[in-house]
């Protein structure tokens, strides 16, 4: 059993309790939170913060070797560069590339991440990850001529990942997007997810091009499909796509162009949203309307996406970017929500038993020290986001990593 004592304990519980000079007692799980608990305390020092470890709900580590290869500034141009460079990037992402990605996440206090795997080449590097992994086997394929082959390949990858299922490694599935997956495949994969109770992630309404294509069969995607697949018809309406996910645990990634009806549907099916502000900025698609999302009481997490559309996997940097980008929101209150977005909301999205400091939760915790005292704890979330890049301690299932 370990007892930590910090100047500030952020519980991230339902009432957003922040305790001053408080203690947290844990072994693999949190045992108690409060004052004068049994055991000798380890005091974390002046201006110390103890809070749940961060969770990166959406990444693509396969693209970890990308630094300057992909084209930013426009979604379709980026996508063309991905198609061009994907193989090269995957081949050059070997052991060190995964190690570096995990090292960066670990340093920034991340205890768990959602990995979108399109090829399965990441499995051997991630199966022994010191961080918790939710491994989303991705399906892509809209051309009827190849759907059977794509499905077989998907099943093989899924089965390999299911064999590795453990407390720290959870298999899951991903349907790439409504524009890139055939509806027959969507149905099959959702069926599997329901049967095996696997979380799902799907990119949704990321770009204006996607909006135009799915609504009207026009625009940049029309040219894109004519060029690559000679298949120039959208296969599903966005709302029909969303309806398919009823009775699943699905997180929709991006949702920048989701309209009222679609947000309402996501809310109705208890869907989650993952917001990737830096990725959205680099692909120049705009940003998620957080105010609207909040009105629907949809839980949103914040994630880095992959190094395919980011320069870093550090979640503190990501939420700092979000804080500065969403100029329509009050920074003090946005800061509070952003800390929820990378802890408790991300835990819900990935179906993990962590993300808050409450009895019975996994003891996934971080500690760090602020440069100075924060007099009014109302200001603590914003000061944490402004002044933290790396953590001092990271505990996963009560063990110091
Ligand atoms: O989230 C970003 C942007 N939107 C869509 N896809 C991806 C992102 N980062 C990587 N991807 C992957 C996606 O999973 O790129 C491929 C898929 O494997 C695009 S389709 C050739
Ligand atoms: Fe993504």
Characteristic key phrases:
alpha/beta, TIM Barrel, binds ligand MCF, eight-stranded parallel β-sheet, 401 residues, 15 helices, 2 domains
Walk me through the structure.
This protein folds into two domains: 96 residues, Urease, subunit C, domain 1; 297 residues, Metal-dependent hydrolases (TIM Barrel, Alpha-Beta Barrel). The protein is built from 15 helices and 16 strands. The model has no long low-confidence stretch (mean pLDDT 98). Helix 12 runs antiparallel to helix 13. 37% of the residues lie in helices and 22% in strands. The strands form two sheets. Strands 1, 2, 3, 4, 5, 14, 15 and 16 form an eight-stranded mixed β-sheet that branches. The protein has an eight-stranded parallel β-sheet with strand order 6-7-8-9-10-11-12-13, sandwiched between helices. The longest helix has 18 residues. With 401 residues, the chain is α/β, with parallel strands linked by helices.
Topology overview:
Layout: E1 2-10, E2 18-26, E3 30-34, E4 42-43, E5 48-52, E6 54-59, H1 75-92, H2 95-107, E7 110-117, H3 123-126, E8 132-139, H4 147-163, E9 169-175, H5 183-196, E10 200-204, H6 208-216, H7 220-228, H8 238-243, E11 250-254, H9 260-268, E12 272-275, H10 277-282, H11 290-295, E13 300-302, H12 315-325, H13 331-341, H14 344-350, E14 365-369, H15 380-387, E15 393-396, E16 399-400
Parallel strand pairs: 1-4, 1-5, 6-7, 7-8, 8-9, 9-10, 10-11, 11-12, 12-13
Antiparallel strand pairs: 1-2, 2-3, 5-14, 14-15, 15-16
Helix pairs in contact: 12-13
The chain binds ligand MCF and fe (iii) ion.
């Amino acid at each position: 059993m370990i007892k930590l004592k910090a100047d500030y304990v952020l519980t991230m519980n339902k009432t957003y309790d922040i305790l001053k000079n408080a203690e947290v007692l844990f072994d693999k799980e949190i045992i108690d939170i409060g004052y004068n608990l049994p055991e000798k305390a380890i005091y974390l020092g002046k201006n110390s913060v103890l809070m749940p470890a961060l969770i990166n709900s959406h990444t693509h580590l396969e693209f970890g070797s990308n630094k300057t290869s992909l084209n930013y500034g426009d979604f379709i141009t980026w996508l063309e560069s991905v198609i061009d460079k994907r193989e090269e990037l995957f081949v050059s992402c070997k052991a060190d590339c995964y190690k570096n990605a995990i090292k960066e996440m670990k340093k920034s206090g991340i205890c768990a991440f959602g990995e979108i795997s399109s090829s399965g080449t990441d499995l051997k590097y991630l199966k022994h990850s010191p961080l918790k992994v939710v491994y989303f086997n991705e399906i892509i394929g809209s051309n009827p001529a190849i759907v059977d082959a794509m499905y077989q390949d998907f099943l093989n990858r899924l089965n390999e990942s299911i064999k590795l299922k453990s407390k720290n490694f959870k298999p899951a599935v991903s349907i790439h997007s409504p524009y890139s997956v055939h509806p027959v495949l969507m149905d099959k994969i959702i069926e599997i997810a329901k049967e095996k109770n696997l979380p799902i992630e799907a990119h949704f309404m990321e770009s204006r091009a996607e909006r135009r294509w799915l609504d009207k069969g026009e625009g940049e995607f029309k040219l894109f499909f004519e060029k690559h697949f000679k298949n120039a018809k959208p296969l599903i309406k966005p709302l029909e796509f969303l309806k398919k996910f009823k009775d699943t645990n699905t997180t929709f990634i991006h949702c920048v162009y989701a309209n009222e009806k679609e947000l309402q549907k996501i809310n109705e099916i208890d869907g989650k949203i993952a917001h990737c502000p830096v990725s959205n900025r680099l692909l120049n698609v705009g940003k998620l309307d957080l105010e609207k999302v909040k009105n629907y009481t949809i839980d949103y997490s914040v994630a880095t996406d992959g190094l395919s559309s980011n320069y870093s996997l550090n979640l503190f940097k990501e939420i700092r970017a979000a804080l500065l980008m969403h100029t329509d929101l009050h920074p003090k209150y946005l800061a509070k929500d952003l800390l929820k977005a990378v802890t408790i909301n991300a835990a819900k999205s990935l179906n993990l038993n962590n993300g808050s400091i409450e009895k019975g939760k996994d003891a996934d915790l971080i500690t760090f020290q602020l440069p100075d005292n924060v007099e009014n704890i109302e200001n603590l979330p914003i000061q944490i986001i402004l002044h933290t890049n790396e953590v001092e301690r990271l505990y996963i299932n009560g063990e110091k990593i």
